[in-house]
Every structure is written in structure tokens, then in C-alpha cells.
Amino acid sequence: MLQVIAQIQTRNRTGGTCEANNGFCPDWIADNYDRYIDPFLQHVFLTVVSVSIGFAIAFGLALLAHRKRWLLPAFSGASEVLYAIPSVALFLLLLPVTGRGTLTGLVALVSYTLIFIFVNVTTGLDGVPEDSVDAARGMGLTERQLLWRVEVPLALPEIFAGLRIATTTTVGLAALAFFAGAGGLGEEITRDKGFQSNIAVAGGLAVLLALVLDLLILFVQRLMTPWRRAAA
Amino acid sequence: MPEAATLEFRRATKRYPGQEEPAVNELSLTVPAGEICVLVGPSGCGKTTAMRMVNRMIDISDGDILLDDRSVTDREPAELRREIGYAIQQIGLFPHLTVGDNIATVPRLLGWEKERIAERVDELLKLVSLDPGETRDRYPAQLSGGQRQRIGVARALAVDPPLMLMDEPFGAIDPINRESLQNEFLRLQQALRKTIVFVTHDIDEAIKMGDRIAILKQGGHLAQFATPAELLMYPADKFVEDFVGADRALKRLALQRVRDIDLWTAATVRVGEPVAEARAKLDDADIDYLLVVDEDGRPRGWLSERGLSGERVTEEFRSKAQPVVEMDDVLRDALSDLLESETRYGAVVDDGGRVQGILSLEVISHVLQAPPEDVPHGADAFVPED
Fold it and tell me: CB A137 to CB B81 under 8 A?
């Protein structure tokens, strides 16, 4: 805990009046932007890896629950409970188990992505038109072919929606991962949180990351669901 | 694969746990290869269940269903279904696939070559009167209801299956388009001669489409299995009688066309013929009227005994030649024409408008006494419009 508090200590800055007044200083930003590169890359890493792992787990569980309906309440209950744990508490709770570092950050972030992806994959699969499923079975698709050729493709809009929420949320939550010693932009934000230039750059990078990842996913979604545009 | 298969229900029964009455109760019937068998009945009679037992979408509890003498229960469901065309009321096109990919579903499952699939898709689109170039790459959402229905039928026909299952395939279409889709389907069937199990709740559709009709009643009992004409002439019980409706005779007349029946010979005269000759014709004729025709044999009007005066036949005393009935008209429409014109006789003309005979109320009522074997059914009864 002490270590954490030590990190949050305000740094001493030297320079012009802008810096002294804790203002928004373009010159300072230009001179210091390189100190944000590593935390930014850590942030990207934390987000992409935890969303990917979370997607793999939640997607797998949702497919399982789609065929074995009795598993559904257990899975959605578990992902809700995980999501309900306050994030800082979870980071700190995990410390004795996984120790300080990236692993703890990832475990916590992954557990928060599960609910968005699980719920959306499930909703998407449930929303596949019944007549398409009946026609697919009636034409002789096996259950596996039905899943991968009809149900999953038709659930894609919902699945992507879940992925987008999970990603933007994770970008935000990863700003707290430094509590677990996993680095990221959060560390920079809190290191000098009275200084506007610092907040603007560190916070701005996080927002930019969320925006870019969101647009990227949207772009992939449009590529993968050409039929959605044709309907209009 | 054979062109058409024989389908036999042998005391096929479906029971659901916890339900006292079976959904389908010992259904036994045989659909000969190349015929349309319509399963019809009120809702809850088990008609859809009976159909879905054929491709094992619903498993049989008791009894058996044989496809070309082979039990469907011996077959792997997915493999069996690929051999059986499947079309349902909601069509069930895949919204995420283009029309071409939708139609290619079963050929792909069977591992057809790319070129063969592309050729088949275009062939099928033409078969259901759609332009391949215009339709192939569109998505279902970009099409009208009627077009989607056609694609549903094309998709079911994709691998030229020997048996087709159709569950209210035209049920969700407005009456005008339904009529034209039914006609189009009968035209197709005249060429394809598939064995078809067709489910509907509409007795008129059953009578129009079926070579044979199985009427089912509550609890999955087969009330009657017969050709449309038999059903209308000899309903097996009160239930069938009520189900086919009080206008049985009129429905029977809808099965036959003027060309199918023996007409009376028309005694025709031309303007300018000697009255003496006309009188002689009138004496020999079946009716008390002469039909005045023009040079080409087209009807001009009716002439009675009173109109025959002077030396030569004139048009002066003729009454109008109404109604004029065509050879392709169904008898019900022809009867309606007669009633509307308040006359007992109508001149029947061929495609060129030339008189071929006379249709009378007596002829029509006589037709209703004819044995049902003489009445054509299904695709045989269908005459395509020119």
C-alpha cells in the first residue's frame, strides 16, 4: 500500500510559469511526450490481451450455454458477480494470489470483460430467426454446421456490439491496473494529477485508444456483415 | 438419385410425453412417385407433425415411414434431410447469405464442384422465373415476399431431390400472388414430377394442388385419403363433409375444364343460308336454337324458330351470343357465366374463337354425376396460361 501511495506523489517540476501554474503547456508536452510511450504501449497491451482472452473465454462459455441451456444461469450469474466486485478492490484482492504485476492486472481486466461478451453472444444467438434455424436443420446441416454457418454469422452484430463495450470499458479500467503494478496510463495520470498538461496527455491517450480500437472493431464488423447494409 | 420416390406411412405414430392423445395416430398412406399428396386439416390435427416425421425433424414414436422401401429411421438424419427438399411457410432464407449462396446450401454440403454449383444456381433461378444476373448476388432483405418464396422453392429443389416437403409454402403470401405462385408451382411440377408432401390448412389450396388429399382431424386421425374429386363426391364422414364445405359441387366443378367434358353439338348457320336448310338443322339439333356464326366460325348470336322467316337467314332476329365460354375455362367459371347471362346455353369456342360446341346447365349437372376417376387432379388438371 505504501508503495502505491509513493507512486502517487507529485513530482517536482522545473521550468516556466505555465508548468508552475499546473496549466496546459504545449511546450512541456512536446518535450516530455516520450515518457508516455511505454505506459501507452502497456495500456494497449493490457486492453488487447485481456479483451482477447476474455472474448475466448466468454464466447466459449456462451456457445456451451447455447446448447446446454441449464448452464446459462450459472454462467451469467458468475460473470455478474465478477463484474460487481469494485475494480480497485479486485486488484488488491488478487495481490496475495498472483502478486504484483501484469498478470494480476490481466486477470482482473479479463474478469470484467466476460459479462459484456457473454451476454451479447448469448443474446445474439438467441436472436437468430427461428425459421432460418429450422430451414438449416431441415436441409441437413449438422448441429456444428448450423452453429458456424448460420447461428454465429447471424449473431455477429450483437457479438461485435459486446466486443466494443468490453473494449472501451477495458481501456477505462486498465487505467486502474497500476494498483496491481501492471502499469498503463493510469500510473502517469495519478503521478501528477494536479498538472493539467499531464492529465491532458495521459487521459487524452486513453480516450484516443478507446476511440481507435472502437473504430477498428466497427470496421471489421462492417467487413464481416455486408448483408446488414444491404437490408437498408 | 431417382427422379421421384415412393413414400409410405405405415401406422406412423407420434406421442409426446405427458400428452394423452397422440399428435399423429397410426397414419397409414402411400404417396406414389411423382404425385403431390396434400396433408390438410384444422390446426392441431397433426399435419405438420406428420410431414416433419418424414425427414426426422420429429422422430417417430411408433410405426414406420419408408422412402423407396427404406425406413427413414435407418438413416442418419442430416444425410436423409439432404436428399429431401424442404420448404416452409416462413421460408427461412439465411439473411446473411446472398440468394446464390442460399440456393447453394445443400449442393455445398454435398461437396459439389464450384462450377457445377454456379450453373445449378442460375438454372434454378430461371426455373422459378427470376433473372439470375439480377437476383444471384442480392440479399434476401432486398427482395419482395413473392421473390423470396420462389427462392425458397429453388433452394429446396437445389439437388433435384426425389421428395419434397412443403409446409404451407404459400401461406404468407397475399391471395393474388399466392394464386400465381400456385400456378407456377403446378407448371413446374408438370415438368419435374417430384413426389411432394404439401401441408396446408386451406381446403381450396388442397383441392387445387393435390393429386391426393389426406384429411386429418384432431388427434392425428386420418379421416380420408382420396383424390380431390373422390373427396368432394364421397366424403367419408360428417367431419370431411363439413371440412370441404357446403359448396362441394362447385368445388368439383373447379377441378374440370370445359375441354375435359362432352359438349353438345352446335347447330350453326350463316347469314344468307336458305331458311329451309336452317329449319332442317334446327329439327336435328339438341336445343331449340341455332347458333349464327360468321365466315370464320365465330359466334354471332342465337336464332330461334320464330326468327326463321323469309327466304334467307338474316341477323335481324338473333339475340346476342352470350356467354362465350373458352375451352380452358374451369366449369365453375363457365357455370357462373351462364348464370350471369341468365341463359341455359353458352357457345364454347377454341383459341381462335371458333365454335366448338355448346355448354348447357344440363351438361354441367351431368358432369357432377361422373365417376371421380374421370376427373383430373394436381398438375394434370393444370393448364398453363398463354
Answer: yes
Residue among B82, B86, B94 minimizing CB distance to A132 = B94
Q: Which H, E and C letters describe chain B, residue by residue?
A: CCCCCCEEEEEEEECCCCCCCCCEEEEEEEECCCCEEEEECCCCCCHHHHHHHHCCCCCCCEEEEEECCEEHHHCCHHHHHHCEEEEECCCCCCCCCCHHHHHCHHHHHCCCCHHHHHHHHHHHHHHCCCCHHHHCCCCHHHCCHHHHHHHHHHHHCCCCCCEEEEECCCCCCCHHHHHHHHHHHHHHHHHHCCEEEEEECCHHHHHHHCCEEEEEECCCEEEEEECHHHHHHCCCCHHHHHHHCCCHHHHHHCCCEHHHCCCECCCEEECCCEHHHHHHHHHHCCCCEEEEECCCCCEEEEEEHHHCCCCECCCCCCEECCCEEECCCEHHHHHHHHHHCCCCEEEEECCCCCEEEEEEHHHHHHHCCCCHHHCCCHHHHCCCCC
Pick the residue from chain A with its C-alpha nearest to B106: A139
**Chain segment B131-144, per-residue pLDDT in tens:** 999 999 999 999 98
pTM of the full structure: 0.81
Closest residue in B to A131 (Cα) is B92
In this structure, are residues A164 and A117 in contact, taking their beta carbons and an 8 Å threshold? no
CA gap B182, A209 in Å, rounded: 58
> Which CATH number does B7-251 carry?
3.40.50.300
Which positions in chain A touch B94 (Cβ < 8 Å)?
A: 132, 135-136, 150, 154
Q: Which residues make Cβ contacts (< 8 Å) with residue B63, sequence separation at least 6?
A: B9, B10, B11, B12, B13, B26, B27, B28
Q: Residues of chain A whose C-beta is under 8 A from some C-beta in B?
A: 129-142, 145, 150, 153-154, 156, 225, 227, 230-231
Contact A138 B86 (CB under 8 A): yes
Distance from CA of B207 to the nearest CA of A (A): 26
Cβ separation B105–A141 shorter than 8 A: yes
DSSP A15: S
Of B88, B94, B98, the CB nearest to A150: B94
Over chain B, what is the mean pLDDT?
Answer: 90
CATH class of A37-225: mainly alpha
The domain spans of chain A are: 37-225
Domain locations along chain B: 7-251, 259-367
Compute the C-alpha angle B18/B21/B22, nearest 5°.
90
Contact call for A139 and B81, based on CB within 8 A: yes
Q: What is the ipTM of this complex?
A: 0.81
Query: Of 3.10.580.10, 3.30.70.1250, 3.40.190.10, 3.55.40.20, which CATH number belongs to B259-367?
Result: 3.10.580.10
Residues B222-260 have pLDDT tens digits of 999 999 999 998 999 999 999 998 888 888 888 888 888
Cβ distance of A145 and B138 shorter than 8 Å: no
- Cβ contact, residue pair B141, A227, below 8 Å: yes
Nearest CA in chain B to A227: B96
